[in-house]
Design brief:
Layout: H1 4-19, H2 27-45, E1 54-57, E2 60-63, H3 64-74, H4 81-87, E3 90-94, E4 99-103, H5 114-127, H6 132-137, H7 143-154, E5 160-161, H8 163-169, H9 174-190
Antiparallel strand pairs: 1-2, 1-5, 3-4
Length: 191
């Protein structure tokens, strides 16, 4: 279960990406921007942009909470308060080929730090003009995705990618990895 602050941060992050695509984007492009920005932020700053677990899916890493929220919204399912808060300002248009996710509100950029915006902007720019089919191939070279995807073949419950695996896949140095481990222990202790 996410706290309201965590949900608002996730929502702000998703809306920030969607605001960069006025015509909307599909699931693949959204999730790849989010994953690579998250990975880069871990490598450079030792912290995630938003608090969620990425899962190794067939077409690459996918944020579990965001995926569930978007799917519930897409299927017009009754949303719990958590997902209702997350989905506010997000629309999904179903096209014959795929779904397009659009924003109907501006992101609350007070929720995002300068470093987080920098990482998001990097991958928004990098992937903006790429086809989603080309983007989907990129994570298949990512060691965190490969490890989790292989685990999930044996046990579907093991598809989660750890923060340390993601940081290592991005090339984090030993000092950054030690910093991340300490923060993970602290977070675990405080929860």
């Amino acid at each position: 279960m996410k706290t309201i602050d965590q949900i608002l941060k996730i929502r702000a992050t998703v809306l920030y990406v969607l605001n960069a695509f006025p015509d909307g984007i599909d699931y693949i492009k959204l999730f790849k921007i989010l994953y690579f920005a998250q990975r880069q932020h871990l490598v450079e700053y030792g912290r995630t942009i938003f608090d969620d677990t990425f899962q190794a899916r067939q077409f690459g890493p996918v944020s579990g909470f965001i995926r569930k929220g978007l799917k519930l919204k897409e299927l017009s399912k009754s949303l719990s308060p958590d997902f209702e808060l997350f989905g506010n300002g997000i629309n999904i248009v179903i096209n014959p080929e795929h779904q397009i996710i659009k924003s109907t509100q501006q992101a609350d950029i007070d929720e995002l730090s300068i470093s987080e915006i920098k990482c998001l902007d990097r991958y928004i720019t990098e992937f903006k003009d790429m086809k989603s089919s080309d983007i989907s191939e990129i994570p298949h070279e990512d060691s965190a995705w490969i490890k989790a995807y292989e685990r999930s073949k044996k046990d579907p419950q093991m598809r989660s990618m750890t923060i340390l695996e993601i940081a290592e896949a991005g090339g984090a140095n030993q000092n950054t990895l030690a910093y991340i481990k300490e923060n993970l222990k602290l977070d675990q202790y405080l929860n």
